[in-house]
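Bench notes, afternoon.
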Amino acid sequence: MNLLLDTHTLLWWCENQKLSTEAAAAIADPDNLAYVSAASIWEISIKQARGKLRVDEAIYDICSEDFESLPITHTDARLAGSLPNHHRDPFDRMLVAQALARELLLVTRDSQMGSYGVNILTA
């Protein structure tokens, strides 16, 4: 199974909190590939810089060591921009676009993302 972690899912995983049993098991399963999008790193960095989020800098090492990196491509950007306006958050729209383009299971608690037809595993 190939997973894409929503930003909050990544944060909760790194802080050992709040994940559903199914999501935690899927992320921990060595047979699954779990991706972290560049969009999530960008979102975390912006929120840190604005003082809206405090995270241990080790999160960046965890991302590099434990998860597959998912860059943002031109195709991703075009798809994210063309999605219906179900969700206003540009980071979430990018994650949806990436999950759709690569047929990834999006691990999230954001119920609005399901309106795009993306496959979701509830975090």
